Protein 1
Amino acid sequence: MAYSIDLSGRVALITGASGGLGAQFARTLAGAGAAVVLASRRIERLKELRAQIEAEGGDAHVIELDVTDQASIRSAVAHAETEVGSIDILVNNSGVSTTQRLVDVGQDDFDFVFDTNVKGAFFVAQEVGKRMLARAQGSAPGSFTGGRIVNVASMAGLKVLPKIGVYCMSKAALIQMTKAMAGEWGRFGINVNAICPGYIDTEINHAHWQTESGQKLVQMLPRKRIGQPQDLDALLVMLCSDQSHFINGAVISADDGFAV
């Protein structure tokens, strides 16, 4: 008998959905039947993605969101729930990085990374979490109680990498945030887990893998290969589904063994 996961009837909010892993996550969840809310500052890119998803028979909506602005977070989440319905799934994906040695990091560099990767991720999860908690406690309508939050961390949160120390620190904080939320919200049926991707080929870094330094890095990897965005599909869908009800506070590496 074939095994399948159906997310029909669920609403999923994906931050940082305008490209890279976020866009792939949105396509994947839409393909599994969820109504996806695409959130980012790059509205035109989101509209293009919405058209692609709709052309494939999916249900997609566009919301402008700046995760470094708490007013924007509150507005985006309220807009999403008004337009589409209560959010059942949050994929907390927005992230940025800088490349520099720690002695060269200035306050602006530090704030740039932490404002998005930690502070932004926290307040997006908090805003969605409040609404999930209200539904679970019966103070707001909804046919489904609880929820699924997937924080997109990185294997850099588990293994320090050169010249991106602040990014590594931010992703380590996101991992601890995941565990804290899982402990506090799990009793209400809200499962919070983290994915730690390894090196993934996206449009942002694709050219790098063709360079001498990129190829040198590939040769240092356990199986001398980098991942593709779709390599995370099965893990994401499982964590967003009802079938993940016994998985809470997990930090799951999807890095081809690099952080071992």
Protein 2
Amino acid sequence: MLSGMYSAAAGMAAQQQRMDAAANDLANVNTTGYKHVRVAFRDLAYAPAGFGGTQDVLIGGGTAATSLGRSLDQGALKVTGQPLDVALRGAGFIAVRGADGQPALTRDGALRTDDQGRIVTGGGLLLDPPITVPAGSTTQDVHVAEDGTVNVGGTVIGALRLLTVPNPSALAGGPDNTFLATAASGAAGTAPRTTTVTQGALEGSNVDLGAAMVNMMEAQRGFELASKAITYQDQMAEIANGIRR
């Protein structure tokens, strides 16, 4: 009898994870370079029921949510005309240094300069390697080529380091709109030559607002059904206990 409750509780937990993922996507629908999370379900372990001494009847343990990583579909490009706004077309990420100094990746090209003239992300993270705009120059003097080369007044001052990983969908989400390499994603390496940089534009989130809303509503309905299953299991247990007495 309790196995039914366990299965229903597992279903509630899975639907809660699905709702959390959908809520996170909705919260980042306007976040530059954001990639939405893909969630699927898997069966939990099956075990012999043990009815009548047979091992042929199996009872499932319910379901669990599992992350399939992030969708890497290209987001729509929005032209801003700002010289430090850059968008990537194709596979790859801009290499940055996290707040802890560790390597990180981002598709958020809303760049700016800090009080030392260094080009940083909107969250204040330094590019890797760092690029500094010369004193006396303004951001309007900055030109970013399609290959990521940055020059001011015809003088090259650095280049955006464009990287990718063997399995980008397995990247972990990091702070400040970054991604972190994992064992599943593989180590970062140079992005393909087909990846280009567009200056004066930003890549929007690839979240489909309608699909995210549908996912959330489906998860809510699934959560409600699983909770009702627990209620029914409790009522059946109450009846069984009454018969025993």
